[in-house]
Each structure stands twice: as structure tokens, then as C-alpha cells.
Amino acid sequence: MAPARTSARAAGACYLVTHVTSIAGLALYAPVLHDSDYVVGTGSDTRVLLGALCEVLLALSVVGTAVALFPVVRRHSRAGAAGYLGLRTLEAAVICVGIVSLLAVVTLRQDPPGGADSVSLRTVARGLVAVHDWTFLVGPNFVLGANTVLLAWLLYRSRLVPRVIAGLGVAGGVLIFGSATAVLLGAYGQVSTWGGLAAVPVFAWELALAGWLLVKGFRPSGGAGQ
To answer: Which of 60, 81, 139, 205 lies deepest, with the highest CB count within 10 Å?
Structure first.
């Protein structure tokens, strides 16, 4: 049970890091995300670079959750454990694309191409910010929804954590995936009241799971399935 306890603590810690770094990164990115003149102004480069660092840590901790859980979850479903690891890695990769797009805006502000005027710089910068916005929808919404449902269902079946926590994950994953679909089809904005409400159950699931894994660890369970 000692390795399982270590895995539980590592996974719980990684989940907490994902929350801290995602919130901090989004807050630090505010100048480049919301100021169309950022690329031609004095800029807040240090703030944006710190935001990028937070999101790098976010991407690493996203993968870290799956790596920490893999040895335990694979005893109950090898395919499910591999699927969760793959989806979390994909989520991290999409996040990294968003990081690079905003770092490119910083580069344009610091060292604009010769002959580029302010209009063209604003246009390119807006395009790069749009790339980040779409990665935010694809990674921490679509892919997150899918991997949340997968892990929560595996934990529900195996009873490694209380079923009320696992059930919250299943519901939250389905809800955020559905909300991402609605945003994609133009029903409402990604940053909106409805979008925020749809993210609450997944946020609560990850916090509840992190707390349980850190304090209690995995429950003893019955035989492992395939």
C-alpha cells in the first residue's frame, strides 16, 4: 500500500498545482489578452512571461496527475489508464500551443519586423491571441471533459475513491464537454456566466479528489478488471 499512498499524494498535489497555476496564468495574461494595443504599446512583458511560466507548470502538472495515477489505475483497467495518460498529455500539448502563441506576441512587441506598421502588428497579434483562445476551448474544455469522464468512471467502478466524488467527476466532465460544444456552435461566449457555471462541477471534482487523495489516499478495492 505504500507505493499507492505515494501515488495518491503525488496526484493530489499535482491537481492542486493545476488549479493554482491555471488561475494565476490567466490573471497574469490579462494585458495581452484584453488590450488590443499591447503589441504596439509599452507592454507588460514580465507579467506575461510569468503567466507563460505558470502555464508551463500547469502543463507539467496536468501530465503529472496521469503519471501519478497510472500505476494504481492500470490494475483495474490498462486501457483506461493508458487512455487517461494519453488524453492528459494531449491536453498539456494544446496548452503549450497557447503559451507559444502569446509568447509570439511578446516577441512582436519587443522586436517587430522591419517595415511593419501598427495596423499589421495589431492584426497579427489579434490572430495569435485568437489561437490562444481556441486552445483554451479545446484543451481545458473538450479534452479535459473527455479525460475527466474517463478517470471518474474508472474510479467509480473500482471504488478507489468515494462514489460521490467519482460521480461528480462524471457529471462535471459531461457538462463541460457539452458547454464547450455550445461555445463552439456560438450559443454563448467562452468567458461568460454560462461557461463559468459549466466549469464549476469539474473544478469541485478536482478539488474534492485532490483533498481525498492527499488526506485519505486510495481505498482498498476488490479484484482488478481489464
So the answer is: 205
